[in-house]
Amino acid sequence: MEFTETEDRSTLRKYARDLAERELAPRATHWDEAEEFPQEAWDALKSAGLFGVTVGEDYGGMGMADVEAAIVLEELARADVSSAILAQLIFNGPPRAIEHLGNQALKDRWLPMAASGEGLFCIGITEPDAGSAANLMRSHLTDDGGGGYRLNAYKNYVTGGHKASACLVWTRFPGGDGAKGVGAVVVDLTAPGVSIAGTHKKMGLRACTEAELAFDDVRIEADDVLLAGNPIDTEAFKTLLAHLNHERCGNAAMCLGAAQGALEYAIRYMNERIIGGRPLADLQGLQWKIADMATQLDAARLLLTRAVTMAGPHGTPPALETAMAKAASNLAAKFVCDEAIQLLGGYGYSREYPVERAYRDIRGLCIGAGTVEVQRNYIGTNLLRGRTPAGGAWRNPLV
Questions:
Q1: Sign of CA dihedral 57, 244, 313, 333
Q2: Helix (H), strand (E), coil (C) string for 129-193
Q3: What is the pLDDT of residue 1?
Q4: H or E element that contains 215
């Protein structure tokens, strides 16, 4: 695994960082306080052409991979996680699934819109009674006798659903039960029968809120089916779950970016804050905090680098390595942002400084795309069954 970025990737990082510092950082506090959709961030990302990072060149994008997506997401989240999520939804959300799994009609209709930034996309998985246990969803399709389906569903915590043009809806196909028959369709959110039932007031990520979307007898054409569920098996459901590894890596990248921003702010503060004629940076106990913060952050970054590198140019990050990267990044971000608040003292607890916003934002990422606990369950179960992550030091302990 290479530890030095290529020139192209370093250029991309600088491009994203410069945009984030110029367009996102000065407005992030306002968007958070007002709980206002960051339209200026959307416009800036669109003008910069950054929405097309992972969309194929045939559809107006750059055709890059998970490595490049992680670089951009980390730099955007360093300034504002809510704005980074706009890119996350394009990079690792429905457009990625459409390009990998969809039919040509879906690709032709939606991918140019994604690459150009003409429309936002959202994902409808969670329901009031089906969170991490997505197999318990009530969403279902019925045959309408005309070659298509009718969708009835109520999806909760749909990030950006109140602003999106289309939603990738996980739903059960006719005859399915539990995880059997679960597949996915792409729904135009201007279609008859679609309504916004409400939005959530949240602790963090306040500029990119979650919506509740209702789908009442919505017509689904055959071409709208991303992945059909077979009522006799769970193969489509497994494919959808595996594809979430892109989103989990993006989640990890945003955690790392927000925590990196908090760490850098704490370092500046410690060098500038003078107590008794000496900067805080001279105090050994506080130096140890910075050392621990940086070490945990870089350890998590290396795990993420492994996962996205293993995906290759057109593949999907492997599940075990992705789960390790997400769990480590979530936990490192919680630790780093919490310690940054502690280092700033009362100022860290104030909304006048950005570290408390970073903490509130990453706290939500520890839940989204599969909780830390779900990742730990997956990691532990697989290790106990003899599966080992990539790395020369590992061997199968059951052999």
A1: positive
A2: CECCCHHHCCCEEEECCCCCEEEEEEEEEEECCCCCCEEEEEEEEEEEECCEEEEEEEEECCCCC
A3: 67
A4: strand 210-220
Q: Assess whether pLDDT exceeds 80 at residue 20.
A: yes
The answer to whether the CB of 185 falls within 8 A of the CB of 143 is: no
Other Cβ atoms within 10 Å of 274 Cβ, number: 10
Q: Give the residue from 250, 294, 246 showing the smallest Cα distance to 270.
A: 294
- The listed CATH number (1.10.520.10, 3.90.340.10, 1.20.140.10, 3.55.50.30) that belongs to domain 237-384: 1.20.140.10
Identical topology for domains 7-116 and 121-233: no
Q: Is 362 exposed, middle or buried (0-12, 13-18, 19+ CB in 10 A)?
A: buried
Q: Read off the pLDDT of each residue in 228-243 and give the average, rounded to a whole number.
A: 96
Q: What is the mean pLDDT of residues 175-182?
A: 96
Query: What is the model's pTM?
Result: 0.97
Measured distance CA(43)–CA(33) in Å, rounded: 20
**Separation between Cα atoms, residue 87 and residue 246, nearest integer Å:** 13
Backbone angles phi, psi at 371, to 5 degrees: -65, 165
Determine the pLDDT at residue 130.
Answer: 87
**In which band, very low, low, confident or very high, does the pLDDT at 4 lie, cut at 50, 70 and 90?**
confident
Query: Would you state the pLDDT for residue 26?
Result: 98
**Distance separating the N- and C-terminal Cα atoms of the chain:** 27
- Residue 180's DSSP bridge partners are 177
**Mean pLDDT, all residues of the chain:** 96
Nearest C-alpha neighbor of 139 from the set 159, 175, 169: 169
Q: Which CATH architecture has domain 7-116?
A: Orthogonal Bundle (1.10)
Residue 373 has pLDDT above 70, yes or no: yes
CATH number of 121-233: 2.40.110.10
Bridge-based pairing of strands 180-188 and 166-177 is antiparallel
Q: Which of 200, 120, 101 is nearest to 155 (CA)?
A: 200
Domain locations along the chain:
7-116, 121-233, 237-384
Q: What does the chain come to in residues?
A: 399
Which whole number is the average pLDDT over 23-44? 98
Give the torsion through C-alpha atoms of 68, 256, 43, 56, to 10 deg: 20
Instruction: Extract the tokens encoding 388.
Output: 């080992």
- Smallest CA-to-CA distance from 174 within 219, 136, 125, 231 is with 231
Q: Does the structure show a pLDDT above 90 at 3? A: no
